[in-house]
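Reviewer 2 asked us to include a model.

Predict the structure of this chain.
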Amino acid sequence: MTKTEFKTRYMPLYKELYRVALHMLGDSNEAEDAVQNLYLKLWERRDALGGIESDEAYCRRLLKNICIDRWREMRRHEQQSLDEEDVPDLCDDAYSEDEMNDKQSFLRAFLARLHERQRRIFVLRMQGSTYDEMELLTGQSATSLRMTISRLKRELIDSYKRKKGCE
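Predicted model (structure tokens):
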């Protein structure tokens, strides 16, 4: 396939493919990168593209696979950064070192029991993120985030009281 044939067959699909990538990834830079990767793969396979019945369907399928891979990589990276984050020190100097360590280990265990989405929201809030920032990072509404944080705080307090035998 020549350069001219490639351009006439595949370049008119750019806008539609970009919209698909943007819808799947939710980030314009990631979408542009995914579409560029698609065109790179198409160009590398240009000699084998002659037998393709529907250029658009083939491009969409290839793009969806690229987007899924990018999405998984983004999720893996987010999870690693959450796992590497230190739990903020919620204890003040009035407590003994043992008591602080006990509270920190309790908080770590509590976070480990949470669903990934809940843990991410709770850690973001403990790190001082605003609800607007959290809304952008998680894609959830501020109302939903407030409810989740409120429930998790209540659950944390109740768990701690049960552990200490206060109930």
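The two ends are 75 Å apart (CA to CA). Helices lie at 3-10, 14-25, 28-44, 55-84, 97-113, 116-126, 131-138, 142-164. We have added this to the supplementary material.
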